[in-house]
Specification:
- By secondary structure, the chain is α/β, with parallel strands linked by helices.
- The chain has two domains: 140 residues, Rossmann fold (3-Layer(aba) Sandwich), CATH 3.40.50.2300; 62 residues, Orthogonal Bundle (Arc Repressor Mutant, subunit A).
- The chain contains eleven helices and six strands.
- The chain has a six-stranded parallel beta sheet, sandwiched between helices.
- β3, α3 and β4 form a beta-alpha-beta unit.
- α4 packs across α6.
- It is globular and about 50 Å long.
- The N terminus is likely disordered.
- GO terms for molecular function: DNA binding.
Length: 218
């Protein structure tokens, strides 16, 4: 379902959830905010890919369990969306709260993770944060990420592709050259670097290489 006529200055949102009643309720809540506009809905991976490609949203609100029926449906879709549309921010909105799921969602490219019983104010704040290219986690999912970062070495936190990006970065390659070596766009390289910096808690390319070396990624 497509809801047209969003204004250019609004945060454009696509809802991906297999329960129509839930989507209707969320849309009703979000559209009370003048800067938020739901431009599309989907209940399956296929529908979501089509709607996102057509509507170019700022943020995708994504449930992890879609109509196929497994927790991994949403994770797989998250990875596809962030790979094909790195400019789109994926915010997981789900009933599932499990450390492994939170961490994997981040690894697959999600910028945020909130549980469905979150209050309206925090949900709206999270959407706006993701739209600004920032991370957004409720207190429980944030705790899961912290526990994972403490418990696991960096090489298990970074994806295989991210580790390759770090390796090429350490050799002094530019974003353009890294993209050429990995057969991905320069925009996608920037997306991976942003995730790497977030996961390693650093803010510069030099710090990425230093931290990756210290933690055994290189």
């Amino acid at each position: 379902m497509v809801i047209p006529d969003a204004q250019p200055d609004q945060v454009r949102i696509v809802l991906v959830d297999d329960h129509a009643i839930f989507r209707q309720g969320i849309r009703s809540i979000l559209e009370r905010e003048r800067d938020l506009k739901v431009v599309g809905e989907a209940s399956t991976t296929g529908e979501a890919l089509v709607v996102v490609s057509r509507e170019h949203p700022t943020v995708v609100l994504l449930d992890l369990k879609l109509s196929i029926g497994t927790d991994t449906d949403g994770l797989n879709l998250c990875e596809q969306l962030t790979s094909r549309h790195p400019e789109v921010g994926v915010l997981v909105l789900t009933t599932f709260l499990d450390d492994a799921l939170v961490v994997e969602a981040v690894q697959r490219g999600a910028r945020g993770y909130v549980v469905k019983d979150v209050d309206t104010t925090e949900l709206v704040r999270s959407i706006r944060a993701v739209a600004r290219d920032e991370s957004a986690f409720d207190s429980r999912s944030a705790a899961a990420v912290v526990r994972s970062m403490r418990a696991e070495p960096a090489q298990t936190v970074l994806t295989e592709r991210e580790s390759k990006v770090v390796g090429l970065l350490a050799r002094g390659l530019s974003n353009k050259d890294i993209g050429a070596r990995l057969y991905i766009s320069e925009t996608t390289v920037k997306f991976h670097l942003r995730n790497i910096m977030r996961k390693l808690n650093v803010s510069t390319r030099t710090e990425v290489v230093y931290e990756a070396t210290k933690l055994g990624v290189l």
